[in-house]
Design brief:
Length: about 160
């Protein structure tokens, strides 16, 4: 007799890959959160106390971090929700998240160009505009991450 709270073999096998996906998803969300924290530190340090090495690091790491996370979500996570008739209400949210990915990636490229220009020629950059640009990006990313942590991750962790 199988107890109600004990997963069957098939359920356990189904949850193991889901838990691995959830773990990798959490890792991508954490990397993006760290990126946001680092961008906020740069924005807070403008104009005089900016760490040039940090700007160069962010310019190099930003697009790959964001794009890698988005491609993982779009290829591994989102199809699980699109293909599950029990989660039909998530379809519109998943589509919105995909559109946000496109905008975030374009914005990330603009920030990379701005960071590189700032490192090359600080006088050509307006620190207030740059800080506003950085804040616009990381605030939008944090909202996106929060939505995924609150709505997508729990469903992934429960194997839906």
């Amino acid at each position: 007799m199988i107890m109600k709270d004990t997963p069957t073999t098939g359920e356990a096998e189904h949850r193991a890959p889901q838990n691995n996906l959830a773990q990798e998803f959490r890792s991508h969300l954490a990397k993006q959160s760290v990126l946001c924290d680092r961008l906020e530190a740069v924005a807070d340090s403008l104009p005089a106390a900016v760490n040039v090495q940090e700007c160069l690091y962010l310019a190099q790491a930003m697009v790959p971090t964001v794009v890698h996370a988005h491609r993982f979500e779009e290829a591994q996570v989102f199809p699980l929700f699109r293909d599950n008739p029990q989660l039909a209400e998530m379809k519109a949210s998943i589509e919105r998240l995909c559109y946000e990915h496109m905008g975030d990636e374009d914005y990330a490229e603009q920030i990379v160009n701005t960071l590189r220009e700032f490192v090359k020629n600080r006088q050509s950059c307006n620190p207030e505009t740059m800080a506003w640009m950085l804040r616009g990006f990381f605030e939008a990313m944090r909202r996106h991450i929060a939505f995924e942590q609150e709505h997508v991750l729990p469903l992934l962790e429960t194997g839906h």
